[in-house]
Amino acid sequence: MHFKYQVIVLFIGLTVGMAGKYITGPSIQTFGTDFTPPAPITSSLRISGKFTNSSDFSLIDQEMNRFMRQWELTGASVAIAKDGEMVFAKGYGLADAENEVAVEPYHLFRVASISKLITTTGIMKLVEEGKLSLNDKVFGDNGILNFAPYDNYRDRKVENIEVLHLLNHSGGWTNRWGDPMFMPTIIARKLGKELPVSDEDIITFMLDKRLHYAPGTMSSYSNLGYAILSKVIERASGQDYEDYIQSKVLYPLGIFDMQLGGSYLKDRKELEVKYYEPINSILISDHTGKEELVPRSYGGNDIHTLGAAGGWIASATDLMRLMLAIDGQPYPADIISSESVELMTTPVGRGFHPLGWRGVRRGERYRTGTLAGSSVLMVNREDGISYVILFNSSTWKGPMLANDIRSMMHRSISRTSEWPDYDLFELAVLED
């Protein structure tokens, strides 16, 4: 414990010193008082896996290596926290198999539907700022999106859609005829447009259809609802969706590396991993309309247009920092209120999704994410343990792999009897 107190004292001293330098230096002219820099010139705290190269974690290593061999997964990044302190961060396998680059905890992965949790946090910030209400109508004369092209719809019931309905997947749409976020060719043909289609095009296409059920009466998983929420955020905040999330949610937490990803290998960001699909995966049409067939992970799916529903890239350590800031626990301090945490984690009724999270089960909150080349899971447990695990590979099981990942992680954690008495965030600050 004596060492931990020394770390805390040093960390506080460094923080105060940095704050003083910031307040008196030229950087204040860039950040201003609302903490919205146009583009960060710094980066997230990039934590190396060397802190966790210890025999104390040999059981976690064994489970991870066995699991990756079993499912032929190329690379992974894992972060574990206990009682608000990150006690484990390590990479496994390869971030770039062709160049034999090993995964580090700071490598960026596509996080797929974990993006929905990020988007929901942004919505809750707007609610707390008084710029939005969960009961605000989205469409119609009195709605948030009461302008073209969103004012042209076939089914009058869309005027009853509230922000809350989009968050808990009860907006009125199902994927009975397919997920519109993955139907670019059909949408372009219907609208008489050239590929690629935008999120605005997708929303316009769906507004020309009748709802499958009355808003708020049931819950059916909908990527479309979160695409609409990105427009809600832009209208309510007056900012671009990505800019708002970064300036109001991520930057205040010291998260600077998270961003929306791209669809092609040429769009790969600094520190982003490569993505790998199962052997013999079929090629599909390019989402931009190019003639050649492409892998889903590189051109088949439009990652940027998925945006608020599934387009973010992040490291395991940055996602851990975000999860600990929305978990309702006193340490570290949350970025949203306890009331917002309660709203996000308490479904409105049986059969309804929570807000942003994939599910809440016996006090355990979890968020899954799957795309071609990506399999991810983050869990916030009732016993004070939280973890994030990201893979740069997918399997034939698709979203169902999350159950196997969860079982493997819980087995690894239950077999680890001792956890370090330090916080990796603090150690990394001292080293930096």
What would your notes on this structure say?
Residues 1-33 have low confidence and may be disordered. The protein has helices at 2-24, 27-31, 58-71, 114-128, 163-167, 184-191, 199-207, 223-237, 241-250, 296-300, 303-310, 316-324, 338-345, 401-414, 424-431, and strands spanning 75-82, 85-96, 101-102, 109-110, 259-260, 284-285, 293-294, 312-314, 359-361, 364-371, 374-380, 385-391. Helices cover 36% and strands 13% of the residues. A seven-stranded antiparallel beta sheet has the order 3-2-1-12-11-10-9, sandwiched between helices. The relative contact order is 0.18. The chain is α+β, with helices and mostly antiparallel strands. It contains 15 helices and twelve strands. The chain is globular. Helix 4 (114-128) packs across helix 9 (241-250), helix 4 (114-128) crosses helix 11 and helix 8 crosses helix 11. Strand 10 (364-371) and strand 11 form a beta hairpin. The longest helix is centred in the N-terminal third of the chain and has 23 residues, at 2-24.
Provide the gyration radius in Å.
Answer: 22 Å
Element order, helices and strands?
HHHEEEEHHHHHHEEEHHEHHEEEEHH
What is the helix fraction of residues, given as a range? 25-40%
By DSSP (H or I, 4+ residues per run), the number of helices equals 15
Distance between the termini: 22 Å
Query: What is the residue-averaged pLDDT?
Result: 90
Unreliable stretches (pLDDT < 50, length at least 5) are: 1-33
Largest sheet: 7 strands, antiparallel
Which outline best applies?
globular
Alpha-beta classification: alpha+beta
